[in-house]
Write a structure and sequence with these properties.
The chain is mostly beta strands. It contains two helices and five strands, in the order E-H-H-E-E-E-E. A hairpin with a 3-residue loop joins strand 3 and strand 4.
Length: about 150
């Protein structure tokens, strides 16, 4: 098998990506060997858990109280995540509803040994709901959200 640039296993290297200017960097993490699946890549469930944590940062500021993940609207694994990648999670507000807040999360990897070059590995849309002390939905504060927030 002939080797292609960018991958020791002969796979084509994914195109380099630019980091999003319209989203906030909310989390950086390096996956470890204990986070791998049977193929040796990082387990998708581990990535999903990190995306859920990263996605909750923006709505936490807006909800001003308890909230919970109510829906994963979309989740796309674009490229495998590998042990030692430096993952950067960017989140942006998509919608503020009466009781819910929807965000878009994009995950970029800096491959081990290729720091400074980014590959978009995952993107997702998640919805969080503001909840009261009994776990029931409550209204999102009307004054919540940044000045450039999408309309309700």
């Amino acid at each position: 098998m002939s080797m292609k640039p960018g991958d020791a296993e002969g796979r084509e290297a994914p195109p380099a990506a630019s980091l999003p200017a319209d989203k906030e960097l909310v989390l950086k993490v390096i996956p470890m060997p204990g986070d791998t699946n049977a193929n040796g890549d990082i387990f998708g469930g581990w990535v999903m858990a990190q995306v859920d944590l990263a996605g909750s940062v923006v709505p936490a500021r807006i909800a001003k109280g308890r909230m919970a993940t109510v829906a994963v609207n979309e989740f796309v694994f674009k490229h495998p995540v590998r042990v030692g990648d430096i993952l950067s999670f960017y989140a942006g507000l998509t919608r503020i509803g009466r009781t819910s807040i929807t965000v878009q999360v994009e995950v970029y990897a800096e491959r081990f040994g290729s720091q400074g070059s980014y590959i978009k590995v995952t993107e997702a849309s998640l919805t969080y709901v503001a909840i009261d002390d009994r776990g029931n939905p409550r209204p999102v504060p009307r004054d919540a959200g940044p000045a450039d927030a999408p309309p309700r």
